[in-house]
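User: Fold this; tokens only.

Assistant: Input:
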Amino acid sequence: MTHTEQQPLGSPFSAASTAQDVTAGLDLSGRNAVVTGGYSGLGLETTRALAAAGARVIVPARRPEAARTALDGVGGDVEVVAMDLGDLGTVRAAASYIRETLTALDLLFATAGVMATPERHVGPGWESTFAVNHFGHFALVCELYPLLAAARDGARVVVYSSAGHGITDIRWHDPHFRTGYDKWQAYGQAKTANVLFAVHLDALGRRDGVRAFALHPGAIITGLQRDMTLQEQIDRGWVDEDGKVIGHGFKTPSQGAATGLWAATSPLLAGRGGLYLEDCEVAGLHAPEAPEGGGVRAYAVDPEAAARLWDLSVAATGAAPIVR
């Protein structure tokens, strides 16, 4: 992937499009999908749309009983499996179950995540935002890669990043904040990691028909803000004193799920990958002279940085490397 490939393709959809718009008339019968966090917010909308289109959907969930309750009434072929992205033992157990259950995996959505959390460490002392948003998904994809490679018509991996990746590049000198914690720097680093992960996964997987995309879903109020106080959200202009969404350009959860579903199913993306998407379209490179504009930072789609993060992640998680 080169920076020049970050160019719009003429998508028929937009920031206003919903999950239902993107999947209207789509038949996913016989397709298998995994959606992390597929029981709340954008993940729930994604699961609902995939199931309505006929896909079999497996939802790894940190709170499986809450997931089953939330998914009650969604209909279709939906199954919940216990998994905590911050605990690689549970990631491997969930992946083992999925490998025993499926013969191929067509779609994998890395949707779950955390944002602006208090300082926490998991595993061998990993900063939790980096661990949950990146390491957990990295290990899951590596464990499920044989199923992705076995998909008859190719597979797509959709990694939820954010415009928040513009906060910071990877803190190569101190990714786990040993020298002082900042919750927004932690979030920004994890979101950059999500983009870099998709870039290198695509480079490794394309020979097997496995293509990967990262995306910014838009600004949406969901459970992602659970570690922020109401006052913080008011001060940022996201909600009013009653918690009503007032932020300019904010999307509904269904609109927020649309770009991920477009990434997974659009024929415009056939033969492409390693791209960063927003508003159901391939995003351009961020223009430094327009700091409020969208797009992807060059450091987040740099192939050398992506390979470096991949090697770091293999060493940290012990995941089986995907060899090109």
